[in-house]
Design brief:
149 residues, alpha+beta, 2 domains, two-stranded antiparallel sheet, 3 helices
Length: 149
């Protein structure tokens, strides 16, 4: 009985401490920005002192600032595979392959060709081998080929 009363008493002492705890959820908001001057040229030497962040008209403190030119992007490549490209398709696909190898490894790319109609050759992927295989299957559609509709 004595232990029960002591346990109850200790529990009552702890309750005000638990009730006094304050929980706050803080959301960190990432703001990605591309900054250009009045002529459209990119400005890359900014510091956090060059920027003002407003939320509902009130200035917010910038708690972390960093710059990166290595952010992944999503892009589409559109390649003309019509008869007019018959002699140039090899050069064009080589240029596209070289471009694919030169960009950020996390970039997502889709490949579409067009001749008589658009043709999605590869949906968005960051797999360079898949893109390369899709690109190697591209050939120019001869205007001399018979069309069946």
């Amino acid at each position: 009985m004595r232990w029960s009363i002591l346990s109850l008493f200790l529990s009552l002492l702890v309750l005000p401490v638990l009730a006094a705890q304050l929980k706050v959820d803080v959301a960190l908001v990432n703001v990605v920005a591309t900054v250009t001057d009045e002529t459209g040229h990119y400005i890359s030497d900014l510091t956090e002192n060059d920027l003002i962040v407003l939320e509902d008209g009130k200035e917010q403190k910038i708690s972390h600032f960093s710059q990166s030119n290595e952010l992944p992007v999503s892009m589409g490549l559109l390649l003309d595979s019509s008869g007019s490209m018959e002699r140039k398709i090899g050069t064009a696909t080589t240029a596209v392959e070289r471009f694919i190898r030169s960009i950020h490894k996390d970039d997502d790319i889709f490949l579409m060709t067009f001749a008589n109609r658009p043709d999605l050759r590869q949906d968005f992927t960051d797999d360079r081998e898949r893109l390369g295989r899709a690109l190697r299957r591209v050939d120019a559609v001869s205007t001399r080929r018979k069309r069946f509709f």
